[in-house]
Design a protein that fits this description.
The protein is mainly alpha-helical and about 290 residues long. The protein contains eleven helices and no strands. The chain has a single domain, classed as Orthogonal Bundle (ABC transporter involved in vitamin B12 uptake, BtuC). Helix 1 crosses helix 6, helix 1 packs antiparallel against helix 10 and helix 6 crosses helix 8. The radius of gyration is 19 Å and the shape is globular.
Length: about 290
C-alpha cells in the first residue's frame, strides 16, 4: 500500500508538469488549428534556459521563470509574425511539415552549440526529500508542482476574466463569428502562439531540475504531448490537464509494477487504446 501511495503521488506531481506541456499545444491548436511539432523543442529551450541561468548567473531555476517566460512569449510571437503567418493559409499539411522542419532546425542548432552531452541541475535544497505521511517527495518536484498549479490558475483567470482571454476563447469556438464581432483574429493568433510557447518554456524550466537535459529531449516530450492531448481530447484545456496527470500516474505505476524499462511504452499503449476505442479522447465529446 505504501508503494502504491508513493507511486501515485509521484505520478500526480509529474503529471501536472506534463499537463503544462499539453496545455500549450492545446491552446495553439484550439485557436489556430495547427499542430506545432516544434513544441517539444520549445520545452527543451526552457530546460536549457534554466540550466544556463544557474550555470552562468547562479540563478535558481524556479526564479528564472520570471526571465524565461516573457522571453519565450516574445520569441513565440516573433516566430509567428516572421515565419508561421505566411505558412498557415497553405493548409494544415503545410504547417505540419513546416513545424517539423523547424523542430529539426532548433534541435540541431542546440546540438551544434551545446553538444549532445547529458546535463543535470543540482540544487542545494534538492538533496534530501520531504516525507509527508511517510511518502518521499523530491523538493524540486514538489516546488515545480506548486508553481505549475499557480501558472495554470493564472492561465484560467486570463482566459476567463480578461478581454484578450475572451477573444481567444471566441476565436477558438468560431473564428468567423469572432471576426464578425470585431475580434482581431490575426492579433489573437500571434498572442496565442506566444502564450503556447511561453507555457512550453515554463514547463521546461519546471521539469529541468528533475530530468536529464540534452538537445534532442524534445523528441520524447512532443510524443508525450501527443499522448496527453489525445487522452484529454484535442483542443480541450481541462482535458489536457486530466490527460497529463493520467499519463504521469500510468507511467509511475507502470515503472513500479511492470518495469521501469517499459515506463514510456506503457503510456504509448494507453495512447493507442484510446485512439482505437475513443478517438475523441477520454474527456472529449464523442461523435
Amino acid at each position: 500500500m505504501e508503494t502504491f501511495a508513493q507511486s501515485l503521488t509521484s505520478g500526480v506531481l509529474t503529471g501536472a508538469l506534463y499537463a503544462m506541456i499539453g496545455i500549450g499545444l492545446t491552446v495553439v491548436f484550439g485557436v489556430m488549428r495547427i499542430i506545432n511539432l516544434a513544441h517539444g523543442e520549445m520545452v527543451m529551450l526552457g530546460m536549457f534556459g534554466a540550466f544556463w541561468g544557474q550555470a552562468l548567473w547562479k540563478l535558481d531555476p524556479f526564479l528564472s521563470l520570471v526571465l524565461w517566460v516573457p522571453l519565450m512569449f516574445l520569441g513565440g510571437m516573433l516566430l509567428y509574425r516572421l515565419l508561421l503567418r505566411k505558412i498557415i493559409p497553405g493548409g494544415e499539411l503545410n504547417t505540419l511539415l513546416y513545424t517539423a522542419g523547424l523542430s529539426l532546425l532548433i534541435a540541431n542548432l542546440a546540438l551544434f552549440f551545446w553538444t549532445g552531452d547529458y546535463r543535470t541541475i543540482n540544487l542545494s535544497y534538492g538533496q534530501e526529500p520531504v516525507r509527508p505521511f511517510g511518502i518521499s517527495i523530491a523538493v524540486p518536484l514538489a516546488v515545480a508542482f506548486v508553481v505549475a498549479l499557480a501558472i495554470t490558475g493564472a492561465l484560467w483567470l486570463f482566459l476567463s476574466r480578461t478581454d484578450m482571454g475572451r477573444a481567444i476563447r471566441a476565436t477558438s469556438q468560431n473564428g468567423e463569428a469572432a471576426i464578425l464581432m470585431g475580434v482581431d483574429v490575426e492579433r489573437v493568433a500571434m498572442i496565442t502562439f506566444g502564450l503556447g510557447t511561453a507555457l512550453a518554456g515554463a514547463a521546461g524550466v519546471l521539469l529541468a531540475p528533475s530530468l536529464y537535459l540534452y538537445p534532442t529531449v524534445g523528441e520524447l516530450l512532443i510524443v508525450k504531448c501527443f499522448v496527453i492531448v489525445v487522452l484529454g481530447g484535442l483542443g480541450s484545456v481541462p482535458g489536457a490537464i486530466a490527460g497529463g496527470i493520467l499519463l504521469g500516474v500510468v507511467e509511475s505505476l507502470g515503472a513500479v509494477y511492470v518495469s521501469s524499462t517499459y515506463k514510456d511504452g506503457i503510456g504509448f499503449v494507453l495512447f493507442l487504446a484510446v485512439l482505437l476505442y475513443r478517438p475523441s479522447g477520454l474527456f472529449g465529446v464523442g461523435k
